[in-house]
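Batch manifest, entry 17 of 40.
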Amino acid sequence: MGLGTVYYRPLVYYSVLPGHVLTGDYVLIPGDYRTARRLIYSGRDSMASADVVTPLGYVDVPRAGVTVRGTTLVGGWAMDNASVGRVDVYVDSTKVGQAQYGVPRPDVQHSYVGAPTNVGYRFPWTPVW
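Output type: structure tokens
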């Protein structure tokens, strides 16, 4: 009948910051779906799997709309299904530093049941005007 089968990976949204690159691999196997399925299953164990879940986080210090003066603490929380390697702090699209990550934030578990406790971050930021 000529009916084809197409495998799509699930739709995943990515957050890409200025100056960063998102790369990935796509595999096209034309032909019979049984052959494609056999090739995929035999090769999937040898391929490095990418982390396709976008990290989740929030900035809650300082609060939105607050005017800051002098050194200001920037803080919040960030988590991922695999791990968070670092939290970079950007102000007006410019990286101003790397936050200390791993601060206890047990309050996050109220909204995200099962979330780790040490998902907080903080960064002392001094504006340069």
